[in-house]
Please model this.
Amino acid sequence: MAAGDPQGLAGLYDLFASRVYSLAMRMLRDTRDAEEVVQDVFAQAWRSARRYDRERGTIAAWLLVMARTRALDRLRARRAAGRTGSDDSVDLELLPDTGISQDLAVITEEQAHALRHALEELPADQRLALELAYFEGLSHADVAARLAQPLGTVKTRIRLGLMKLREVFARSPIQDRQP
Model:
């Protein structure tokens, strides 16, 4: 794809479009907006393929960071237009712009399965806090407000959950692979 081969883009799309769509749909809760995010992400990937640096992260992480950024842009545009979507409780000004954690970026189906399994093994309070923070893009303060829990409690649950996930993946025989 970096050399301008459209087949490279097609292959990348086949491998990652469903993951990009899933993230966008989870954040936006709107089919049309999620589909537009997918289109925007792969158009941006095509335009910036030469600048991709595998030393900075996986292809999946690169695409998912773009998707998250585009989804946040759409959430902010909704707010500016007075259209908040299905969740009015999210304070969009507090959402981080830095993209998803590469600790949670899935690369292969095996790793996606391992992540789901590891999340299922977490205590429910840690899992919920992590899901709200990483998959819905909420800040720690927003997670605390949504769960009606003290901010310190939420931060501790997220930190403990991430530590447990790291332990699971450190023991995992699944190696990071590029498709």
Summary: The helical segments are 6-28, 31-47, 59-80, 109-121, 124-135, 140-147, 151-171. The domain at 101-179 is CATH 1.10.10.10 (Arc Repressor Mutant, subunit A).
